[in-house]
Amino acid sequence: MSTLIPPDVYMTDRNYMVDNYPMIIGFTVAGTIDALGAGIDDLMQGDRVTAFTYLDFSNRAMQEYSVQPRSVVSKIPDSLSLEEAATLPDNFVCAFYVLFNQLGLPVPSSFPVSDSPPLADTPILIYGASSTVGVYAVQLLQLAGYKKIIATASTRNHEYLKSLGATATFDYNSASLNDDIAKFVGGDGKVPLALDCISAESTLGILGKIIGSQGKVAVLLPIKEGSTVTGSGEQEMYWELPEGKNPFEKTTQIIYIRTFQYQNDEYLKKNLMPKILPSLLQSGFIKPSRVRLLDEGSFKERVEAGLELLRNNKVSGEKVIVKITA
């Protein structure tokens, strides 16, 4: 099993991170171990695993066999299906990296925490919380002891997000969104910490009115023109906000997120996929996102159908999973 995500569309349609075609797409995979390299003593042949397959383009996910280093592989419990497991690696890693590295929240020694963290009562906003990154960010914040987790999403996903730990949910299509969040936050009505899971010009424009002047906002790259995750082929993508398009106050800290850099943190490299994620899955504390499984037709047809869903922004509150083998 493997996933299709917006960067796969950017790569197939826009030459995003691509030097030459043809190429293999897919950033995550779930399956069973066929063989192990030297020195791997905590996994066995036949173990069920999931992996974040981003380090080597020749060994990406959408193929029958993929060779991965131990640092990007997680063993999964028997209670988890392979299609559920395939939803996890890229977006779980992204959410963890944003919260406990880029935004600077302390890394819990265990989940759930026994003692409240220093900023437990600080409002933290997850914009586009029904995205897969948002789903894991909400769960991780709840497990880490944060008590004011604000989630924006379409109304059909509000109860789902509350079941995962969101304290308050707001409709990001509401004309009163800013006022509603300000009323919940109290005080000056501004949010000090935020993660934008959509990272489009329109969403950043909204956040510019919500984030405090001394606040931090994490932006998942690339930034898109318009208002959607994938945008259209005519719309530009940016690696930082262009001159004249920055809606934030000068003192607001904008953190541009490149998830692929998470292994620059030695602690995360050694622990996040090999130890932390398996422990959270085994305990049942992390729930996989909802699955849109594509398992009909040929492999090529399944991939094309998934890319088309993403191109047309037809995915909400779930993740597209492609069955690789017949």
UniProtKB/TrEMBL annotation:
This is Enoyl reductase (ER) domain-containing protein. Signal peptide: none annotated. InterPro entries: ADH-like_C, ADH-like_N, ER, GroES-like_sf, NAD(P)-bd_dom_sf, Trans-enoyl_RdTase-like. GO terms for molecular function: oxidoreductase activity, acting on NAD(P)H. Residues 1-322 form the Enoyl reductase (ER) domain. Gene3D superfamilies: Medium-chain alcohol dehydrogenases, catalytic domain (3.90.180.10), NAD(P)-binding Rossmann-like Domain (3.40.50.720).
